[in-house]
Amino acid sequence: MESIILFVLVLFLLLLGVPVGISLGLSSVLIIAFASSDSMSSVAMQLFTASQNYTLLAIPFFVLASSFMSTGGVARRLINFAIASVGHFRGGLAMASVLACMLFAALSGSSPATVVAIGTIAIAGMCKVGYSKDFAAGVIANAGTLGILIPPSITMVVYSAATDVSVGRMFLAGVIPGILAGVMLMLAIYVMARIKKLPYEPWRGFGEIFRSGKDAAPGLFLIIIILGGIYGGVFTPTEAAAVAAIYAFFIATFAYRDMGPLKDTPWLSSTENVQAHRGFNAIIYAVSCFFVFLVMSFFVTSGMNGDHYTLASRSLLGGVLSVIVLFSYILWRGKEGMGSVTTCLMAGLPVVGKNMMLIARSFLPAMFNHDTRKVLIEASRTTVMLMFIIVNALLFAHVLTSEGIPQVITGIMLDMGFNWFTFLIVVNILLLLGGQFMEPSGLLLIVAPVVFPIAMQLGIDPVHLGIMMVVNMEIGMITPPIGLNLFVTSGVTGMSLVRVVKAALPFAAVLFLFLILVTYVPIISTWLPYSLMGPETITN
Predict the structure, then answer these.
(1) Which of 3, 204, 281, 526 is least surrounded by Cβ atoms within 10 Å, i.e. has the fewest?
(2) Could you give the angle at the alpha carbon of 452 between the alpha carbons of 35 and 394, nearest 5°?
(3) Spatial distance between the Cα atoms of 435 and 433, rounded to a whole number of angstroms
(4) What is the number of other CB atoms lying within 10 angstroms of the CB of residue 57?
């Protein structure tokens, strides 16, 4: 009886327009106060326990990293790289937008952030070359959902916190499904482009791919830091999130210079001669090669015999590679032979020194710059909103558990003869309906504690279940009336919500097909994490 009252209270408050977090928390408190044997002190204990959850601590840092990476230049560079890679296909600009969303998803972990960052640039670009605004909006609204499937994903962190499944395995499990979903969207675009005779970009050669990839590389290296650090055993997902936030700040402020006191300040002024340009670039590439090699070798050799892979030995090998890169670049860019190396280096070193002094002088001001404050305030607002929903949802999950509701539902479903196949159909329907009305994190924290024990009883893999639930959350983000990506796309394009919904529907059908694949072909989700980390063990 208490379970019926609890769910009726939540639905009643949601229909009244009460925010999701308050609906969950207030319903839980009322049940504990008037209809449960649990004491009111459990409310305080659950709120304190949720606030001390180490896994959830990753969320504020991933949100902050996403905010820094969303400041303009990163998205533009990713789009340029994507256009150079796939723009020459029919419908190439739309396909490039999907690829850019996939890359940005791997930096942000957020669907709305992906839609805003990529959509702001890509939709205008598609309209300019002849795509309809509706087509462009539909592509971005759907491709943006990959933000919660491709790791690092905030939604996966929430699922892991609710079920005690490994965050690392969940992140790895999202790689192949994320790539598959992106490829399926691009194939759908290609077919539609052939039918509608949509435009394509001229093939610009591998040189353009290399140049645009070089510009995007500092941002994309964040993926290596997060995933390499976690699976190299260097740090936990929470520590990876903190490192990602710091790295994103440095890249946005000092490397790309899209914000802060160095905003729009070029690394090389127009007055520098050719030798200075060549020498500066050679030094930057060599130093970058050295540090990238140190980081990558540290991730790869972590846990191996420390006597053979010391910092000194790795630094020596990295130094040799860097010198080779330095000489090779200068000789490749010039035709004067070995004599030009010294000239270029002597001309480039003062430029490097000037930039280093500029960064040193700007370091403290950058921390208190109005751009930095704006990013911190935006990230704080998002974090407070998410954590408020999550904490109240965890309180709701505690009430479900204390009243034995999951066990009751498990018994009923098993008595009715449910097997894994029919159970997954029910979970998909439940999540698809719930995703129309609730924010993904809150819905996941409500549903996961109920369905997880049943899934374990039926022999369903916990990582597979998690990815399936995340894909459902994806579809919920493009499903009216509360689909968040629909509202964000509407805001970016200025189109009405109804028009955005109609534009997104054809591509949503692709995601429905993808959901069926993920649901009934579990190896898509489980092969990579279990190959690298072994199977997930559920002890509770």
Answers:
(1) 204
(2) 50
(3) 5
(4) 19
Whole-model pTM?
A: 0.85
Q: Could you tell me the sign of the dihedral formed by the alpha carbons of 325, 326, 329, 331, in that order? A: negative
Identify the burial level of 359 via C-beta atoms within 10 angstroms of its C-beta, where 0-12 means exposed, 13-18 middle and 19 or more buried: middle
C-beta of residue 156 within 8 angstroms of C-beta of residue 171: yes
Residue 304 has pLDDT above 70, yes or no: no
Based on DSSP, count helices (H) and strands (E) in the chain, helices before strands: 25, 0
Mean pLDDT of 157-166: 87
CA distance 201 to 124: 15
Nearest CA to 249 out of 224, 289, 218, 293 is that of 218
Using the structure block, give the residue that is written with the tokens 């002849």: 130
What are the angstrom distances between the C-alpha of 481 and each of 110, 144, 486, 506?
Answer: 20, 18, 9, 17
Q: Which two tokens stand for residue 474?
A: 């994806």
- Determine the Cα–Cα distance for residues 368 and 219; give it in Å rounded to an integer: 22
Residue 364 CA to residue 382 CA, distance in Å, equals 25
Q: Note the pLDDT of residue 182.
A: 93
* Residue in the structure block whose two tokens are 């890359």: 103
Q: In the structure encoding, which two tokens stand for residue 532, read together? A: 């690298």
Query: pLDDT digit string (tens) for 275-293?
Result: 888 888 889 889 888 888 8
DSSP 147: G
Which pLDDT band holds residue 308 (cuts at 50, 70, 90)?
low
Residue with tokens 């479900």: 400
d(CA 462, CA 264): 48
Dihedrals phi, psi of 386, to nearest 5 degrees: -65, -45
